[in-house]
Amino acid sequence: MILSRQKPAVGGASALVREKEKSKEKKLPKVDDLLTSRDYTGAMTVLEFNKQAGKGEKDTDSWIGFCAFHLGDYKKAYEMYMNLCKQPGCDANMWLNFSCCCFYLGMYKEAEDAALKAPKSSLQNRLLFHLSHKFNDEKRLMTFHKNLQDQFEDQLCLASIHYMRSHYQESIDVYKRILLENREFLALNVYVALCYYKLDYYDVSQEVLAVYLQSYPDSAIAVNLKACNHFKLFNGKAAEAELKHLQEISSSSFSFASELVKHNLVVFRSGEGALQVLPPLIDVIPEARLNLVIYYLRQDDLDEAYGLIKETDPTSPQEYIIKAVVNAALGQERGSREHVKIAQQYFQMFGSSASECDTIPGRQCMASCFFLLKQFDDVLIYLNSIKSYFYNDDVFNFNYAQAKATTGNFKEAEEVFLLVQSEKIKNDYVYLSWLARSYIMNKKARLAWELYLKMETSGESFSLLQMIANDCYKMGQFYISAKAFDVLERLDPNPEYWEGKRGACVGLFQLIIAGQEPRETLREVLMLLRNSTNPQVEYIARVIKKWGKENRVAVQ
Prior knowledge:
By secondary structure, the chain is an all-alpha fold. It has 34 helices and no strands. It is elongated, with a radius of gyration of 36 Å.
């Protein structure tokens, strides 16, 4: 509301002008009307104006605190109520308002102390119920739970505790029961939609949410949830478009959820701006810590990721999974059996729980648990049950293909490895070595050799070369085996490499005699042998030349 800054006419005002002035005065909004219409910004503006103009009443500060609280300005509300509580003879119920502000500011101990100074009431019981949950005090939680009445405020409080304890279906049941009796409580549709979102029913969440958005299209919380559904159903761009729409039509509610929107934009943009946005929100938005951990994992900064999560005692599904993933990554990176064991335990604890055992994340966790235990037949049981949901997921396909290859199903392993599109994974030694082995086992040794040729000289390329040489030898693909042993021998004059090359060359010679390899390859066999200085070369070469002469094969 913009108040008039014009000076009144001085002296000699006509009756018509005076009438107009009276008309303007009548149109000034009343605080009661503004509060009824939930225009807390307008109400607070009028209250503060009256206070500055000396027209404030005894309860003006109390109402300013009330408006600030409902606008999400908990710090201002905290200051107003703290001043009121310090006044002699203040209303004891003011301590309860002060306690609510402390609660929303994360000052739980101060909130409890203040709440206990207030007289007993249903609001006090609800507040202490929530504080017991924050303190993980199950005994007191059940005590306050028993004091809840069959009134919708208490039932809403119970539903919120169900939600925070991941009992989403129980929460939905409470909300739906209240909605049946109070159809006008449209905001409950947002809570129901949020529960369905947590249960991965994104389509259902959208349908329920639409009921509320028809009446309040500029609701920051509702539009943000819609964006999150779009992120899960489609992609980050679709989700970001919804939030841009929110910014365009932003009202006072937008500033209320600005931190939440900033947080989610980082997620929708795959971590862009994470280091600027997420650290200040760690103790404000629960998911901020987890998303910052995910960002560090993607940047391969395992120490930072572990530092953020190591002291966290997991309570939500996401916390269990991320803590397990961080320990698994750290264990594999450092060769720490302790971290791997911790990861395996968290994966098993979550995946085998009654509430998660039949969910997609639950089955992924059980697959990860057995992967770490190297029980790959069990890994495939779980991955086969969910593979239709991850056809284009590179990480899933990478792990699925490894499990296939480890159990000897190299044909399918090769097909799944080739579905991977991520350049980072395709350049990983584990991927290259398993794909090369799959090629060799599927009689495609030349493709494995091409993988080696594309690599830069390094310890990993040497290891891959050793694997190609030995696996090709085992599979009777002697031409590529001989070439690989030849390179190995030149890089490291180890007698074993000569023996491997000698055996591969003789084996290739036998295949040529049997007509299973082209005779033209004979010339290359001799070239490979001549790269060695071993005295046995001349004898083998003499035998090959003699056979070539007798069978009219040019070997020079």
